[in-house]
Each structure stands twice: as structure tokens, then as C-alpha cells.
Amino acid sequence: MRNVMRQTLLEFEFIDALEPNDVSIDIKQQLFKNVDFFEWKINHDAVIATFLSHMSELIYAYENQQNLLILEDDIVYVRPFLFSNVNFEEFDLFNIGAEFGCYAYFVSWQGAGRILQHITSIEITQAYDWELFKIHHLRIKKVDQPVFIQTDKFKSNIAPNGYEKY
């Protein structure tokens, strides 16, 4: 992440994401009882921790009326981008990674509120990135070419052995 920070010339605040062992049984039973990722040979608690980590960032953005760039730690900066030209009035969510994913995106504070309102009003059935991109009333903007891509340099705590169904 420090390498990404140097390349982008942005100042970052590092936030420790939740770890799988931070996920309580109550949270799993209340919020994630009907999710489809239990059909996969992955670390389910890591998926839940990732979901909750993104939600806590959205809560912070909304409560503090702060626009954010959210980056996960398994990314590589692949092309220059003028971060200073981002107009947060144009979108709720601006995906600057590949077509589908939550590892690199801007969120306006108003967009964070819309996402929170939606996710707290539904039954969660999928991982965060899938739930996020099912929200059809969001103003979503995408780049033509990714600014960041995920890398396999780091072993995933979600799917250390790849994605495979039981």
C-alpha cells in the first residue's frame, strides 16, 4: 500500500479492516444467515469481515460528510489518473478498478448514505461487491480502463485456494 501511495501522490489514512475472528456468531446469524457464499470453499468469516469493513467506511463517510477513495490492500496501480479532477457531484460511486469489484472506488458521502440505506433495508444474500452492484438507483460511474487491478502477489484470506463450490 505504501508503494501505491507513492505512485498516486495521494495522502492516505490507513484503516485496519476487520479480521475474520472479529465476526461474532450473532452478526453471522442476524445479517448473513441467507448468503450464497456458504456454497463456496472460501473463508466465510473473511467475506463477512470485508463486508462489514466496507460498511464501517461508508458509515464514516456519511456521518462526517466526507467523500472517500476506498482501496483494498491487494491492488496494483496500473495507469496514471488525475485524482484532483474527480467531481463527487457526478456520482454516488465511481469504480476505478475493473468492471466488477469493490477493491478500488470513490464514494461520495451522499452515495454512502444511499448505499447504507439500501443495504440496511434488504436481506443480504451475497458478498459486498455483489450487493453493491445490485443497487440500481445508485449513480455509478466507471473508468474505461482500470486505474487499479487486484494482484495475486498476496495470498487471499477469503479464497486462499481459489474459488470453488462445495
Would you write up a description of this structure?
Strand 3 (about 95) and strand 4 (about 105) form a beta hairpin. The longest helix has 20 residues, at about 45-65. The chain has one domain (about 1-10, about 25-150). The chain has helices at about 1-10, 25-30, 45-65, 110-120, 130; strands at about 70, 75, 95, 105, 140, 150. The termini are far apart. It contains 5 helices and 6 strands; from the N terminus they run H-H-H-E-E-E-E-H-H-E-E.
Query: How can the largest sheet be summarized?
Result: 4 strands, mixed
Q: Strand-residue fraction?
A: 5-15%
Structural class: alpha+beta
Mean pLDDT: 91
Strand line-up in the sheet with most strands: 1-4-3-5
How many β strands by DSSP? 6
Order of helices and strands: HHHEEEEHHEE
> Helicity, in percent?
25-40%
- Please report the distance between the alpha carbons of the first and last residues: 33 Å
Rounded to an integer in angstroms, the radius of gyration calculated over CA atoms is 16 Å
Q: Please count the helical segments.
A: 5
The general outline is globular
Number of structural units classed as domains: 1
| Uncertain spans | none
